[in-house]
Amino acid sequence: MQRIPEPEMMTGAEQVRAYAQADFEEPNALFSARVLDQAPVAPAACVDLGCGPGDIVRGLAAARPRWSFDGIDGSPPMIEHARQATPAAAAHRVRFHVMRIAAGSVPPRPRRIGGYDVGLSNSLLHHLRDPADLWAVLKDWLSPRAHLFVMDLLRPDTPEDAAATVNAYAADEAEVLRRDFHNSLLAAYRPEEVAAQLDAAGLAHLRVEQVSDRHLMVWGPLTPPSTP
């Protein structure tokens, strides 16, 4: 099945509300577990590109009290929701910013002159008009010693498979979320396509693996390990 691009951002109030209220506990836990297992435990500055309503940032902030976080999203309603949902006690180390990863340009990072120690992105890649933009921002914003973790949807083999996935995992969700989920599946990439993106970005050393029936993950150190 050929990829069918979709709009880059969720900006409608109904979309944002449905997304923020949806049950993403399973994929969020899958993603966070990999981060907590592989990223350093020491104090770290972390950036989440395409943070949406901030669920992953808040969960990781609770698990890693010595980490600081910048959540980035191009949708002002998403960022407003993320800010309102973040406990005041965490405000000194959890910040959210409205910022768009524009095609062909790398925006200035919001802080961390030396670069971030951990780079995250969940379900942003398929939204971007040019996937190279995500890899360019991560390379520019992260410290050479940083680790990155990118999870995204996996494009099904057929439109029928996409519809079946929506019915299996979003049967009880709002219709607007079901529609967006279906469109996102059609816009997602296959592992070999992501591997080609990484090769073009000079990141071919990163691991690409299918981690569920509908998700793939890219992870590893930004700088390839030295060979003896």
Outline:
The protein has 228 residues and is of the alpha/beta class. Helix content is 38%, strand content 21%. The protein has helices at residues 13-21, 25-38, 55-63, 76-85, 132-141, 159-169, 175-187, 191-200, and strands spanning 44-49, 67-73, 94-98, 116-122, 142-153, 207-210, 215-221.
Secondary structure: elements and pairs:
Blueprint: H1 13-21, H2 25-38, E1 44-49, H3 55-63, E2 67-73, H4 76-85, E3 94-98, E4 116-122, H5 132-141, E5 142-153, H6 159-169, H7 175-187, H8 191-200, E6 207-210, E7 215-221
Parallel strand pairs: 1-2, 1-4, 2-3, 4-5
Antiparallel strand pairs: 5-7, 6-7
Helix pairs in contact: 2-3, 6-7
Distance between the termini: 42 Å
Tally of strands? 7
Shape: globular
Q: How is the CATH topology named?
A: Rossmann fold
Summarize the amount of helix as a percent range: 25-40%
Kindly describe this structure.
Helix 2 packs across helix 3 (55-63) and helix 6 crosses helix 7 (175-187). The mean pLDDT is 89. The chain has eight helices and seven strands, in the order H-H-E-H-E-H-E-E-H-E-H-H-H-E-E. It has one domain (13-34, 42-99, 113-220): Vaccinia Virus protein VP39 (Rossmann fold), CATH 3.40.50. Strand 1, helix 3 and strand 2 (67-73) form a beta-alpha-beta unit. The protein has a seven-stranded mixed β-sheet, sandwiched between helices. With 228 residues, it is α/β, with parallel strands linked by helices. Helix content is 38%, strand content 21%. It has helices at 13-21, 25-38, 55-63, 76-85, 132-141, 159-169, 175-187, 191-200, and strands at 44-49, 67-73, 94-98, 116-122, 142-153, 207-210, 215-221. It is globular, with a radius of gyration of 17 Å.
